[in-house]
Design goal:
With 751 residues, this protein is an alpha/beta fold. The protein contains 28 helices and 27 strands.
Length: 751
Amino acid sequence: MTDATLERISVAREGGVFRLGFKYSPRLVELVKKMPDAQFDPVTKTWTSTVCTQSLEKLRELRWEGLLSTDPDDLVPAGEQLVTIKSAHLRAGTVRRPFLVHIAMRDDELYRQLVSIPGARWEKAAGAVSYPPHAAVALADLCASGVVEDAAKILQPAEIVVAYDARIGAFTVRGDTRAADVFAEKFPAHDVVGKWLEKGHDVAFADDFSREIYHGERARLGEGFQPEGMSLELYPYQRKDLAVALARTGLGVWSSMGVGKTAIGIALGHQLLYNDKSVSRVVVLVPPSVRTQWRNEILRFTGCPESDVVVVDGDKKKRMAQYEAAKNAKWLIVHYQAVILADDTKKIGELISGSVLICDEAHRLKNEQAKTHKVVKQYSQRASRRLLLSGTPVENQPGEWYNLINLVYPGVFGSPIDFLNRYAYPGKFGGYEGARNIPELRKRSKVLYVRHTLNEIAEFLPKLRVQTIKLDPKPEYQAVLKRAHKEARDEIRAKRVSEMEDRQKRSGGVTLDGYERDDVEAGAEMTAVGMLKLLCCSPRIVTGSESQSAIALVESGLIPDEDGPKVEALRTMCAEMQSNGERLVVFTSSKRMANLVAERLTEDGVRHVLYTGDTSTADRDSAISAFTTAGDDKNPGPTAFVSTDAGAEGLNLGRCCSTLVNLDIPWTPGRLAQRNARVRRVDSTATSFLIVNLVIAGTIEEGILRMVEHKADLADAILGENGGRLQTTGRGGKNVFEAAMAEWEREQEQK
């Protein structure tokens, strides 16, 4: 007797359902699951299926295969008209995910079609696919085509339906072709929907998302909004951005650093908390360096009592008490390091529901694999409004853009895989790199953020002069740098490859294949370049380093015992500025370089403060306060603010200085822009600023400058700036670096 003959299904009818019973068999389970509305009853250990034409047909197929013990036609009285059900039904969901599509019959192709809609999520408990508001247009298309039944008439029926389709980045008007033409011609310059309603037309938005986008785009062209009760008078462009933010539940503010993004966040919170009284709390996530600055500006601009603002800091016991106090406060300021702590995550989660979530320096969240991003993503889904602030939302590849936009409007771009397959290239060693279909991405993204560049608001900013000084080193030092450029890179590369091959041999593996060797050499190349970059800053900071790559460079015998021309040039500049009663900000990527500069300024008698990752919170606040406070004859204050990139985000240092010096060039244009924005800001007191980039002539630093320019093209393209020069490219971050270095090396060989 075969297994097939043992597989028998009993079937009976109970009102509107067929009940099927059988001994457990994976094969039978899969067959029964394909029946309409198939559900397992754990009490009776049987399956049920809705009585309809499709279920009767499925039972007949089972009968023909010899798997059914009863003739299903005997269960349907003669003359009974069975209904034919749709493959899927649209049902009402929750407030945040208002649509549910229940799949009546198992259909893999239909399932793939449903989950391809942006924002789709399988809800196991409900046995359905759920959607956010902005999926209404796509669901309406499925209903119109007959794939999905809108039995409850959930999608708004009206004479004219206005919908924003995030899949194409444009509005659609349904129900009246003439209305569609009028809308395309008049919006956003005119309130088309308002005019239709005045004339008595039956007009509806397809969903809340469409309504938000409509009013937000109208707000871009309006006069803007100035909240009552604020001591801060917003600039015209800030008032417009605030009006857009008030019309939306999610918005990215991607304006350049220094144009006043913080003011927009505070104004939004002030209006919703104190004027509208529509929210109970604003939760602000910030880098540790700007907690005090946010607190001070909230108090200064809103005039609220100090008890309204809680800043999280200190040990666990102290933080837990602060979260408890925040229940009765209006503003909660939390630094990103605290967000990922288990106890803090729970407490913030309890306070975030129904609150406004503001993420300052939001580019810190662009890595979806990072724990901080995962936690903040949960917050964004629970908050009533989301405002993300960053001047550098994308630097390396479109995946960063997706991750931030997904926090603004979760699910608006669909799945990350579909997004990356559309707008990036598969990487050689896995992952994604480069960018493509940029014009399309720009069109889909334009309504999801606001942005103003420094050029746009130049009338409100101090004048700026950027000077790149190429220092000519001593002949002997110049010769060392030229030799080190090639020899040190070769030394580190060979050593790294040798170490990897030895490790593989010891573990019983074979030597590196071509791809593995390329990958190891690329990593060694970056390490070598990093050391050469430090060498350009000062040979002394390489000599004392304990890293393997630095040791390899030292062992090559190429390192001179000197501070280098950058330190010498800076010492001269600081001495001159102190004698003139002026101040300057000094940035470097290296903590060792910052400490070396501080030591030399101390030797020269130049007043200064030091700001690095090792500086305590109290000392950081003291350093900022001392530098930004106007001095007098008795207490002139520090001349120099010496900082690593720990101080490159959020700080406002332009109140008492007019010069910024970059001792080295960062790897990304965003980091360079972040540094420069610490001084040239809309609230700066100086009338003009000078930014000085120090570069050692004829060295790899010139190549790094070129790489930064290449990387800036991607952000310009997505944001539609500088003519959108980049339309498509297969270059990822590593390829951009390699191309820039190769181009620079060719130029050096020709000299």
